[in-house]
Design goal:
The chain has about 220 residues and is of the alpha+beta class. About 35% of the residues lie in helices and about 25% in strands. It contains four helices and eight strands; from the N terminus they run ααβββββββααβ. It has helices at about 1-25, 45-50, 160-180, 185-205; strands spanning about 55-75, 90-105, 115, 120-125, 130, 135-140, 145-150, 210-215. Strands 1, 2, 5, 6 and 7 form a five-stranded antiparallel sheet that branches. Strand 3 (about 115) and strand 4 form a beta hairpin. Mean pLDDT is about 75; it is low at about 1-45.
Length: about 220
């Protein structure tokens, strides 16, 4: 019984194929050899803007550096004279940390993205890169106190941890930013951002892409 069912099924398939070939020859079915090229879907400006702005602050480069901080504190006001007899605290700290830079994509609008009617060309204008100061991280593991001389009682001078949080760390971040700027972190961010968004738009199906970074001639 099973063999009979199989033979009937095979015969039905063969008849269907033959019938299809006959109809094709009569012009009643499209040719099986006809092929169509896959369509490339190009996203419109709002969709591209959404893709570009996937993160509000896009970090493209990080500068790792180290700075020396010379910190001295002595009693103030009427007690400042105590400094002359050595009542003070003095630290030299080698502080290491990372400074991130990139683009605040919240500054972009639809006007910053242009796509040609045929979807083959696009231009994106990025805002000027910036250093994200709130994202600077201190490498506490590799930060070192090179010298320490504390001869000031806690009730007259800031205790060690408070001194670090209040003065040493903020000064260290300022110096790390200064060092990163000297090493042209913002220009490097502009270059990396341009390359990144060129690749991104190419992946979206746009062949010719121009990325402009405000403030930079790249």
């Amino acid at each position: 019984m099973l063999k009979q069912v199989i033979r009937i099924s095979i015969a039905a398939i063969v008849l269907a194929v033959v019938a299809g070939l006959i109809l094709q020859q009569l012009g009643m079915l499209p040719s099986m050899q006809a092929t169509t090229s896959p369509a490339i879907t190009v996203q419109a400006s709002p969709a591209i803007l959404q893709e570009v702005k996937r993160v509000s602050k896009y970090v493209v480069i990080q500068h790792y550096g180290s700075v020396d901080i010379d910190y001295t504190e002595a009693p103030s006001g009427m007690l400042n004279a105590l400094k002359s007899i050595g009542i003070q605290q003095h630290y030299v700290v080698l502080l290491r940390g990372t400074v991130p830079a990139g683009f605040d994509l919240n500054e972009m609008s639809e006007a910053d993205i242009w796509v040609s009617p045929d979807g083959k060309r696009a231009q994106v204008t990025l805002p000027a890169p910036k250093i994200f100061e709130e994202m600077i991280s201190i490498d506490n593991e590799h930060t070192r106190v090179l010298a320490a001389d504390d001869k000031c009682p806690d009730f007259l001078c800031t205790v060690d941890l408070a001194a670090f949080n209040k003065t040493i760390e903020p000064e260290g971040k300022r110096l790390l930013i200064e060092s990163a700027r000297k090493n042209e972190i913002l220009r490097q961010a502009a270059v990396e951002g341009k390359l990144h968004y060129e690749r991104l738009l190419n992946q979206l199906g746009i062949g010719e892409v121009r990325v402009v970074v405000q403030g930079y001639d790249l």
